[in-house]
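Reminder to self: tokens first, then the designed residues, so the page reads top to bottom the way the pipeline ran.
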């Protein structure tokens, strides 16, 4: 939820942007943030959309300090993932390689979980916890922290009026459309994986807000693990939906089958397959 804010607030943010840019010697290359109206897109691919319509909020108004934050976070994420070897997947192929490496697949069952409203649910406190965790594996300076947190001071615009997030006093908001939003989520995801990996004996991975794990435990023990994982996310301000005891799951654009040990392409029901025939007269690069 958002509320209208003072018209002078954008100038306050811009003045700090300017100081950061000057300190880094980038003030001649960084533009002042443009005031672009935010908009929503409907999640019409979700189940029961007609009875329970949901949407995502896109904020195209973003500070270019976020580009600097993106580079800092990208370096941090690489260092942490290299050091911890957690399964923070960046593509379908990463998830497939993980699945192929599972020994004696038929003895396992899947557990899937989805972080609800991941971007807007990230608090400044959770980001600080994740940065503290990451600082065990790489150097994070006070200037890095300042840039990362300042880049999260976001405003929404509607008809040129600025709006801020309701449940924060310092305009902290991880928005969809920001330069460093994906890298911020990756850092939070890596931190959350560090809290739950032991429960799955390293057989768990995350792709943005979608998690996938396998477990050999009995159904009653798996229910206990589900509750523990839910509580870990809840204690960090994140809500998840979680399902367990499946032998087959659709994850990203792949169907994984533990019984047969195979995988195959998966397409969501509402997605139309678009393609150009290989014998068409389009240019070869298409």
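Designed residues (286 positions):
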């Amino acid at each position: 939820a958002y509320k209208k804010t003072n018209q002078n607030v954008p100038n306050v943010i811009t003045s700090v942007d300017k100081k950061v840019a000057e300190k880094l010697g980038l003030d001649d290359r960084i533009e002042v943030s443009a005031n672009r109206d935010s908009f929503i897109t409907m999640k019409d691919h979700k189940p029961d959309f007609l009875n329970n319509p949901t949407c995502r909020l896109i904020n195209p108004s973003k500070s270019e300090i976020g580009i600097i934050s993106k580079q800092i976070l990208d370096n941090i994420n690489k260092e942490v993932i290299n050091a911890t070897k957690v399964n923070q997947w960046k593509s379908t192929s990463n998830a497939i390689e993980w699945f192929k490496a599972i020994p004696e697949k038929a003895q396992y069952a899947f557990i899937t979980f989805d972080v609800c409203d991941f971007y807007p649910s990230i608090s400044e406190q959770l980001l600080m916890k994740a940065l503290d965790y990451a600082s065990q594996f790489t150097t994070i300076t006070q200037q890095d922290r300042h840039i990362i947190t300042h880049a999260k001071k976001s405003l929404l615009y509607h008809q040129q009026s600025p709006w801020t997030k309701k449940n924060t006093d310092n305009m902290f908001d991880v928005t969809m459309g920001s330069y460093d939003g994906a890298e911020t989520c990756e850092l939070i995801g890596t931190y959350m994986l560090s809290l739950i990996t032991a429960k799955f004996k390293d057989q768990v991975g995350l792709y943005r807000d979608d998690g996938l794990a396998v477990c050999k435990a009995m159904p009653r023990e798996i229910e206990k693990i589900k509750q523990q994982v839910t509580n870990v996310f809840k204690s960090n301000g994140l809500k998840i939906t979680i399902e367990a005891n499946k032998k087959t799951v659709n994850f990203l654009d792949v169907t994984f089958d533990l019984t047969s040990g195979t995988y195959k392409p998966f397409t969501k029901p509402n997605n139309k397959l678009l393609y150009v025939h290989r014998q068409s007269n389009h240019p070869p690069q298409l």
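The helical segments are 9-23, 65-84, 92-100, 118-121, 124-134, 142-150, 181-196, 219-235.
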